[in-house]
Write a structure and sequence with these properties.
With about 120 residues, the protein is mostly beta strands. Helices cover about 0% and strands about 60% of the residues. It has no helices and eleven strands. Strands 2, 4, 5, 6, 9, 10 and 11 form a seven-stranded mixed sheet that branches. It has a four-stranded antiparallel sheet with strand order 1-3-8-7, with no helix packed on it. The mean pLDDT is about 95.
Length: about 120
């Protein structure tokens, strides 16, 4: 399986910025579309942004401009978050499809996520 570890979250003042990192491990030989998701209290996990194997990106309409997704290699995907005014408390996760030796292309295992808290 592809194990995912998210990092970079923390307590940030309104208007601050964070850079989240997603690191994947396993017998990875390729990467397909990978996205960042967030989950807030009382809501289901929702897509924030994703990036394709060729670098094409998409964003949630309400977050466009404040969020930027990028990929360093097949095992590292980051999310830059700016102007954290309305984010509140949310857990951010990453996931997508990777090609793995012995299994082919498949979804990664959901990690614990990284917590982002915006203080007033």
């Amino acid at each position: 399986q592809v194990r995912l570890v998210e990092s970079g979250g923390g307590l940030v003042q309104s208007g601050g910025s964070l850079r989240l990192l997603c690191e994947a491990s396993g017998s990875i030989y390729s990467i397909n579309t990978v996205g960042w998701f967030r989950q807030t209290p009382g809501k289901q996990r929702e897509l924030v942004a994703n990036i394709s194997d060729v670098g094409a990106t998409t964003y949630a309409d309400s977050l466009k401009g404040r969020f930027t997704i990028g990929r360093d290699n097949v095992a590292s995907v980051w999310l830059q978050i700016n102007d954290l005014v309305k984010e509140g408390r949310a857990v951010y996760y990453c996931n997508g499809e990777w090609g793995e030796a012995g299994r082919g292309v498949h979804l990664g295992a959901w990690g614990q996520g990284t917590l982002v808290i915006v203080s007033s």
